Amino acid sequence: MQHLKKLIHLINQKGKKNIVLFEQLTIKPGKEQSLFQGVVNATFHNDHTASKYLYKSLPEDTRYVILKSRLEAKLLNYLLFLDLTESNQKQDDSAKRRCELLVHQAKLLSRQREYQMSEKILRKAIRMAKEYEYTALQIEAQELLLHIYFTEEALTSYQTLKVQYSQQRQILAAERDAFLLYQQAQLELLQDKTTEDTLEYIYSITQQLQQRWQQFQSFTLFDLYYRLHVRQLELEESYPQLLVLTAMAEEFVKELKVNDKRFNYLHNYRLRLYASLRAGELEAGLRLAEQGIPLFDPSSEDWLGFTESYFLLSLHSKHYQQASALLKQVEHSPIFTKAPVVSKEKWYLYKAFLHLMSVEQADGLPFDYETLRQKLPQSRKDKQGLNIALLLIEFCYLLLTHQKNALTKKAETYKKYLERHFTTPNLLRERIFFLLMLYVIRHNFRIEPIEQKSAKLFNQLKQSLLPRGAHVSRIEIVPYPQLWEKIKEILRQKE
Predict the structure, then answer these.
(1) What's this model's pTM, rounded to 2 decimal places?
(2) Domain boundaries, the chain
């Protein structure tokens, strides 16, 4: 029943209105149509209710099994008529679907020996596949066309196309080998290891992919090489080099070394902002973000990701007015209401940290930590992710509101959290910061002994590296050294 429900949902969502699934001539609908309508109207929740209504029997009844099989076959055939093009679909995805449809149409015509029409469609498919560098589709269309030339004994056309076909087969073989290398590298990374051996292995695969791209100049080869190279530089914490690579990729597109119809320019732009943030190139990143505003549609997910990097760049560089303006844009954006829960929770935390760092640029309302906690049910489960930021903002809130007793009671909680969850090297900065928080409590919130005792630990924090390959959720919403300075400022004001 689940398969039927999914197929019917897809057909109702994507089906064209001028094509009917069932004949409308009969007064009484047949059992296939009754089963279809029962699923659509949610009359049939499962096989038991459907078989009982249609045959007064159990789902194992042969009549019901055959009926369901016939309806499923009809639905699968109907998939050929669906309009799968979406308004937010990337240009190259839409082109690929059109190209696949052309090849399918040519196959049907060729089977009916309509070679002239089939040849015309295949030539169009080959031009499109070549324009977008769909190697496999180009080969499939060429094979059909070679068959037509062979059947019609068109020797000259056959020999000319055969040369092009042989060249494309070499490229496809290289792409398939490269894809296996890429998959193997990704599987290695799924082990969540960042040992020197792993880094060397990923580097060697990246080099092999680069060599294949340079040899065959295929977009697919470039894409595989580029994606793995980006991941390699993240793992190596080589964010300045990542900035160079992302800028170089855009130059390759301008120089037509990389297919501009397939290259995801918006994703690359977001990657450049991310690299700017991680490399500490804050002012350059802000200038880049300012230039990128016209490129992103405010109703798209790309815009939300772009604005997130822009906001973090503003917050890290202490441009709180800019950060506040971006936050308000997000809160009033329709795309934010459709965002996943975790994405919304991140933005709630961003607002809390902005409020902490600059009350002047907040919305004028007092910071309500309890409301924030209620908005973050998922984040509290992520002990090494956003929950860390939630604990940090809790500490600062209690400090701001002068709740020393509450903080003293939480000292043991922070200590246990530190011991249980900050045991790996990539959480060293979090471990240091929680130790600094404990220093505040143990020295009774007095700034002078805290500064003296924490100096060495604070220097360790400033010199420690950010975790390898961390995702956005692990980016410090406010850099820990900057946050520590804010905590000391609060302590001075409270004395």
Answers:
(1) 0.78
(2) 2-81, 340-495
